[in-house]
Structure formats: structure tokens, C-alpha cells
Write a structure and sequence with these properties.
Blueprint lengths: L1 H22 L3 E3 L2 H9 L6 E5 L13 E4 L2 E2 L1 H6 L4 E5 L5 H9 L3 E5 L6 H12 L3 H22 L5 E6 L1 E2 L2 E2 L6 H8 L2 E2 L11 E2 L1 H7 L3 E5 L18 H4 L3 E4 L11 H11 L8
Parallel strand pairs: 1-2, 1-5, 2-3, 5-6, 7-10, 7-12, 12-13
Antiparallel strand pairs: 3-4, 8-9, 9-11
């Protein structure tokens, strides 16, 4: 009887400890998309640190910033005593990851490459934070909307489209990039899809030779001047036909549900122009 009661109390203790570990978890989200994921899973109050540019939702802007393009401020992060650090593969430095692990901090590295990876990897985070029920609902909504967008746009006539990721130097993307996923959904062909570099630097002459029908500028506003280098090049179809468009990179470059808003906008503005017979 005594052994039974002792075993029972051990079982109860383990259950309570397991629950408590989720309830008191302190989380650092070291990429903007991971910050959005954590908030979407209802974990905002548990976030103790974020990365630079973690600006959505607005509440995230109040959190301490402990990482940027140069890496993690490990001293600042460790002082905040996180027990779970969420990182992106593109910015995760192996030496820093190992140091965090030596401090007993759990590290999870995210690396979405396709649109379909978003719900899969969101669920991985959800499993670490006991929020799988929320993630399931979010993922169902995401995949339903993604399928709807694909069905609406993916089968229309192809159009040659130059996607400008950055203006100085001019950077675009190849066929093995995140951007290619978006172009494919909108039936937009990438003139630099065969390039060996995921995000290659190109020059104006190379773009002129490709003669794109559409130019997409990854920037919120024409006032940025990021597309000025094309304005006088009327020999390019996109310029001649006034088919140069600006689009907010926050809605295209982040691996979150908001990408579907950007994707739908991209497909809408690049709709084939009907010509009179």
C-alpha cells in the first residue's frame, strides 16, 4: 500500500512538473517569422527576447532585442534566462548554438524553404510549447487558403518576371529560392531560374537581355527610389508597358501566414493584360 501511494505521488509530481514546464516557459524568438509564429500560438507573454526587425505584431516591438544580422548578443540573451530559443537556419551560428546548449538552454532551428513548410514547422514549435491545438487550426486555415490561391492563379498564361530583391547591388533570385515558390503560384517565370546562386547579383544589361514582361520591386513604396534604374529603359517590355510593381517585402519574405496576403496581391497585380483582337 505504501509503495502504491509513493508511486502515485511520483506520477502526480511528474505530470505537474511537465505541465509547469510549459506554463512557465521563457522563450526567445530570434527571427521575425518566429516571433510572429509565437504570437500566433498565444505565447506572447512568454517571449523574453526577440531579433531585430521583429516588428509584428506591435507588441513584439516592446521586447528586448538580442540578435541581428551580426549574430546573437549571448550575454544579453543568457541574462534573460530563456529555456527555449527559436532560431532560423539562415542566421544560426553553430558556435553560438552550442554555447546555448551548454547552458542547458533548448534550441530549435527553423528552416522553411517552401510555402508548405510553414505549417509543418509551425507545428514543430507548437509541439515544444504545448500549443498543438492552436497550430492545427492555424494550419488548416493556411492550407485551405493556399490551395484556393493556387487554384485561382496557377494555371493562367505564363509571364516572364524579374523579381528585384534588392537595388544596390541588383539582387534577384534563382529557381531554388523562397521567391520561386511565390512566382510559381502566380504563373510567373523567372528569367534567372537557372542561376547557380540562390540570390545572385546581376546587372542592368543582364536584365535587359532577359527582357522581362514584368518587374517586381521588393519595397513598400515607389518613393524609395529602388526602381529608378529601370525607368528610362523603354526597350524592356515591363518598362515600356508600365508593368513595374512595388510590393511590401514583409508580406513576401517572411515565413508566416501573412505571406498569403502578399502572394494574393502579387498574383493580382501581375494578372495578364487582355489585348483587343
Amino acid at each position: 500500500m505504501l509503495l502504491f501511494l509513493k508511486s502515485r505521488w511520483i506520477f502526480v509530481f511528474l505530470i505537474c512538473t511537465s505541465f509547469s514546464s510549459f506554463a512557465t516557459q521563457r522563450i526567445a524568438t530570434l527571427a521575425p517569422h518566429l516571433t510572429e509564429w509565437a504570437y500566433s500560438l498565444g505565447l506572447g507573454e512568454q517571449i523574453v527576447a526577440v531579433s531585430a526587425y521583429s516588428d509584428y505584431p506591435l507588441e513584439a516591438q516592446k521586447k528586448p532585442i538580442v540578435s541581428d544580422a551580426n549574430g546573437i548578443n549571448l550575454d544579453a540573451l543568457i541574462r534573460l534566462k530563456p529555456d527555449l530559443v527559436l532560431m532560423w537556419q539562415g542566421s544560426a551560428q553553430s558556435a553560438q548554438v552550442e554555447k546555448l546548449k551548454r547552458f542547458g538552454i533548448k534550441v530549435h532551428v527553423s528552416n522553411p524553404h517552401t510555402l508548405e513548410d510553414i505549417p509543418k514547422q509551425l507545428m514543430q514549435v507548437a509541439k515544444l510549447t504545448d500549443t498543438t491545438a492552436i497550430a492545427t487550426k492555424l494550419n488548416e486555415a493556411f492550407l485551405t487558403r493556399l490551395d484556393s490561391i493556387k487554384n485561382q492563379y496557377q494555371h493562367r498564361p505564363k509571364q516572364n518576371t524579374f523579381f528585384q530583391v534588392w537595388h544596390s547591388p541588383i539582387i534577384t533570385s534563382n529557381g531554388d529560392s523562397w521567391i520561386q515558390n511565390l512566382l510559381d503560384v502566380c504563373a510567373l517565370t523567372n528569367p534567372f531560374s537557372e542561376h547557380s546562386v540562390a540570390y545572385p547579383t546581376v546587372n542592368k544589361e543582364q536584365v535587359m537581355l532577359k527582357n522581362p514582361d514584368i518587374i517586381i520591386i521588393s519595397n513598400k513604396s515607389p518613393s524609395s527610389g529602388h526602381g529608378e534604374m529601370w525607368s528610362n529603359l523603354k526597350m524592356i517590355n515591363a518598362v515600356k508597358n508600365d508593368r513595374m510593381y512595388y510590393i511590401d517585402p514583409d508580406y513576401l519574405h517572411r515565413f508566416t501566414a501573412r505571406v498569403l496576403q502578399g502572394l494574393e496581391h502579387l498574383c493580382d497585380i501581375t494578372a495578364p493584360i487582355k489585348t483587343s483582337d
